Amino acid sequence: MSRSSDEEFAFAGVLRQIADSVAFKPGYYNESYLDRRISARMRRCDIDDHEAYERRLREDPAEREALMAALTINVTGFFRNPEMWEVFRDVLRRRTADQRRVRVWSAPCADGREPYSVAMLACDDPEIDERRVEVLGTDISDEALDAAREGVYHTTRTTDIAAELEPLSTPADWVDRDGDTFSVTDRVQELVAFDRHDMVQDGAREAFDVVLCRNLLIYIDSEHKGAVFDTLEASLSPGSVLVVGMTESVPPDRRDRYEPIDKRRRVFRRQ
Ligand SMILES: C[S@@+](CC[C@H](N)C(=O)[O-])C[C@H]1O[C@@H](n2cnc3c(N)ncnc32)[C@H](O)[C@@H]1O
Fold first, then answer.
1. Which of 34, 66, 136, 265 has its C-alpha lying 20 to 30 A from 19's C-alpha?
2. Ligand 1 pocket at CB < 6 A
């Protein structure tokens, strides 16, 4: 990114304005990601300098809200990257055969489709004893958590929920469908709890057997990635499993702590 020092200063002003006025911590995320999202909003507002945009943010609550929505990276799906879920299915089969209680953490869980995928898979697969599975979904966004607790999803022009559920053999047993609206059944919801948790700041939760931390690290700047990994490591007991996103990786200085179970699908065993 090549900006003059004046532009640099004006961009920093926008970031300060965000930190002061919306529930989002720009300091966690990498600058190119922030720049892309902010520039997109500026284009929508027909504003081409950061100083003017900063003023707009100060004066216009509707724009603050629109920017907040643009900055919140909440793209997700049921069984996102289905090839990873085949490895995950094996992990869950083995763990539930060997252990009385298998704790899975989906962090971050966005609108809940990832933790519900875990619970549905457990209910759907005859080789997994779902009574042994407990799932926790956490996210920094209260809005995402509200949607997750509701457990209602809609097929839209860009999201085909029925197609997302294809890895299940009997999806109709785990979601109630009414046209384009899909509601996760009580039986599945009972396996999943939700809570707010900031992966940079809030530290470890209890020890988990499997942690899914997918599609957050790509947005986090290198300085805060270490904090996310500290959180993960303190929440993973030895021998437990960590899954990161398909375009993410374990930082080089921590690789010796993770043995790949399936490198391409980013599934690792904590040493
Ligand atoms: C792209 S979604 C990933 C959801 C899911 N893991 C997946 O891969 O489909 C990223 C989520 O990270 C959440 N998030 C952003 N910063 C966070 C932080 N510091 N701690 C916890 N969650 C965070 C966002 O609110 C968003 O819901």
1. 136
2. 28, 72-76, 80, 108, 110, 114, 139-141, 144, 198-200, 214-216, 245
